[in-house]
């Protein structure tokens, strides 16, 4: 068979896609296989126009490129639950945000993706010995047939999707995985590349439908507020997840000070991070704008100059002095540009902090907090001080003399490091609160602590989940998504646990209500409201009260599984159906504001 090399290449390509689905626990349906195969046919059929001698090496190179892209997708998916995109290019310089924890994403079996390279090389050498006279064989007719067949197989599901009115390809996709399942591996990456190229040359403008959604959202926002204007101290604690609060390991409390802090503050155990690929930068953005992260990349690097109605700017207009404090490079995650755009008058960065002992990426949190108090004392009252701590950042490295916990039963060094750094941060927060009280900066201030996102160690079957006996869908959801939140309004005499569930989009409206400042365009709702908030995540999943919805991204919007958080059991989909469209619309409105400057098209 004169083109057997080509058919062997296709067999290897198809087998690698199945291997990808095994490694990522993603769906591998027959329809997905066909559309992925069609993409491979279209992209590789041209090799049949080349002599067999050259084609062998081209196909070998294509297998290597395919494996490189697949293994990169696997590693990215393990950390972010999404696939690589060309729109991540502006964020690539920030990837050291993952730090040494990147090594935890790599498994020896991943390199099986390259096994076909060696097998195909051996096969090529065998062919060259067995068929020395067939080296100049070309098959232009077969190339045309394969290209046409591939194109038809690829176009058929798209046409079907269009006929059914599924809008995923025109803007309703809430996650890249939706496009992956519709277009297949090659189709997804090709479509993503095309979108990236088009975005360079096209000036985006929201559709009439999207403008109407933004206008409707703006009309539902309250216009008036009044009250005192206390100093506001907002502290973002790195990788702090709710599971560590109250947790004991070998009889030792992981966070002894934070455990008792709820006696002095309102504590929200059902508060959720809504970050996506931007992680820490997503948390900062969502907290300060009450908008959602992008489905690909970070707002900080992709749309740093877009128009928002952010918390710092609202406070600035209300008479506040506003300052961001982060003891790291001011240009990292493009913070200096973004902070200026959203209304921070001051940015105290690495150069404004002493060169003392580092823990992880920057100076230790205790010195960071104490120096930040000195910066706050230089601000005009009332002030808004937004602080981003760093000591508990992945890969969770900490000096030996700071490791205070025994951690019996834990063997994973990354997990052990996480608990050690969180325990250290607990002590740093205790020092910070003590100094605020000593400087008379505590009682009359609005003070808030919250976790920015999970540890990145919450996967099913991992040591953390196993030790905590977390196995069900809802238990894994809460382990992954809940981060602690403490709020102390001015003059609070007694703290307590708050039952209301909320997300990071809800914090800015809460702060503005407590500060007596009118709210601009924000998608969240105050945590002081009696209205039950919907908590939406970037993949279209959501929580509403006791209900948790997990969408099926392999099908059209509206298909998924509904769970009761209290029981952990799957329940009738009717309990979730009333909120599915609202969740998708929330993401769509946010994307319109961020990517297309949607606020410029609404009537105020």
From TrEMBL:
Q: How does it sit in the membrane?
A: Multi-pass membrane protein
> Where is it predominantly found?
membrane
- EC main class here is transferase
What GO molecular-function term can you cite, just one? transferase activity
Its domain of life?
Bacteria
Please report the stretch or stretches of sequence annotated as the Sulfatase N-terminal domain.
230-517
What residues form the membrane-spanning segments?
A: 7-24, 30-50, 57-77, 111-128, 140-159
Q: In which pathway does it act?
A: Cell wall biogenesis; lipoteichoic acid biosynthesis
Where would one find coiled-coil regions in this protein? none
Arranged from A to Z, the UniProt key words for this protein are: Cell membrane, Membrane, Transferase, Transmembrane, Transmembrane helix
Give the EC number(s) under which this enzyme is classified.
2.7.8.-
Task: List the subcellular locations.
Answer: Cell membrane
UniProt similarity note: Belongs to the LTA synthase family.
What is the protein name stated in its UniProt record?
Answer: LTA synthase family protein
Organism of origin is Planococcus dechangensis
């Amino acid at each position: 068979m004169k083109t057997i090399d080509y058919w062997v290449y296709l067999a290897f390509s198809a087998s690698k896609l199945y291997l990808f689905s095994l490694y990522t626990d993603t769906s591998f349906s027959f329809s997905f296989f066909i559309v992925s195969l069609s993409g491979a046919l279209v992209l590789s059929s041209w090799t049949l126009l080349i002599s067999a001698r050259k084609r062998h090496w081209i196909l070998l190179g294509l297998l290597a490129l395919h494996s490189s892209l697949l293994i990169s997708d696997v590693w990215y998916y393990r950390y972010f639950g999404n696939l690589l995109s060309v729109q991540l290019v502006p964020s690539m310089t920030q990837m050291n945000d993952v730090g040494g924890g990147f090594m935890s994403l790599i498994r020896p079996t991943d390199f099986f993706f390259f096994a076909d390279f060696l097998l195909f090389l051996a096969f090529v050498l065998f062919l060259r010995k067995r068929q020395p006279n067939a080296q100049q064989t070309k098959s232009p007719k077969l190339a045309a047939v394969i290209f046409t067949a591939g194109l038809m197989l690829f176009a058929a599901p798209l046409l079907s999707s269009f006929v059914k009115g599924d809008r995923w390809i025109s803007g309703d996709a809430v996650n890249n995985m939706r496009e992956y399942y519709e277009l297949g591996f090659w189709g997804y990456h090709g479509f993503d590349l095309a979108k990236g190229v088009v975005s360079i040359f096209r000036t985006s403008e929201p559709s009439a439908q999207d403008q109407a959604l933004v206008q409707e959202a703006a009309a539902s926002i309250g216009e008036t507020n009044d009250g005192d204007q206390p100093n506001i101290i907002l502290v973002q604690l790195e990788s702090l997840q709710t599971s560590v609060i109250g947790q004991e390991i070998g009889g030792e409390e992981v966070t002894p000070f934070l455990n008792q802090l709820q006696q002095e503050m309102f504590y929200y155990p059902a508060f959720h991070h809504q970050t996506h690929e931007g992680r820490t930068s997503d948390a900062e953005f969502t907290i300060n704008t009450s908008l959602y992260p992008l489905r690909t990349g970070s707002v900080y690097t992709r749309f740093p100059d877009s128009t928002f109605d952010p918390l710092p700017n609202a406070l600035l207009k209300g008479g506040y002095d506003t300052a961001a404090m982060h003891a790291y490079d001011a240009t990292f995650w493009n913070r200096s540009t973004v902070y200026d755009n959203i209304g921070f008058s001051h940015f105290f960065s690495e150069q404004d902090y002493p060169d003392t002992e580092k823990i992880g990426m920057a100076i230790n949190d205790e010195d960071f907090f104490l120096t930040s108090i000195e910066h706050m004392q230089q601000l005009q009252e009332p002030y808004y001080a937004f602080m981003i701590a760093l000591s508990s950042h992945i890969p969770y490295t900490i000096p030996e003399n700071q490791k205070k916990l025994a951690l019996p039963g834990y063997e994973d060094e990354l997990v052990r490091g996480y608990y050690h750094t969180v325990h250290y941060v607990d002590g740093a927060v205790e020092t910070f609160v003590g100094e605020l009280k000593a400087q008379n900066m505590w009682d009359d201030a609005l003070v808030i602590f919250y976790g920015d996102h999970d540890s990145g160690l919450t996967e099913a079957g991992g040591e953390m989940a196993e030790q905590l006996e977390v196995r069900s869908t809802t238990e894994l959801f809460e382990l992954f998504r809940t981060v602690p939140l403490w709020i102390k309004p001015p003059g609070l005499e007694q703290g307590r646990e708050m039952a209301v569930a909320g997300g990071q989009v809800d914090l800015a409206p809460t702060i503005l209500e407590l500060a007596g400042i009118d709210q601009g365009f924000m998608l969240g709702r105050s945590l002081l409201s009696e209205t039950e908030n919907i908590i939406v995540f970037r993949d279209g999943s959501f929580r509403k009260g006791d209900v948790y919805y997990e969408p099926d991204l392999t099908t059209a919007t509206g298909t998924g599984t509904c769970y009761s958080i209290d029981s952990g059991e799957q329940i009738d989909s009717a309990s979730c159906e009333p909120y599915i469209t609202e969740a998708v619309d929330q993401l769509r409105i946010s994307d319109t504001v961020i990517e297309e400057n949607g606020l410029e098209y609404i009537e105020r």
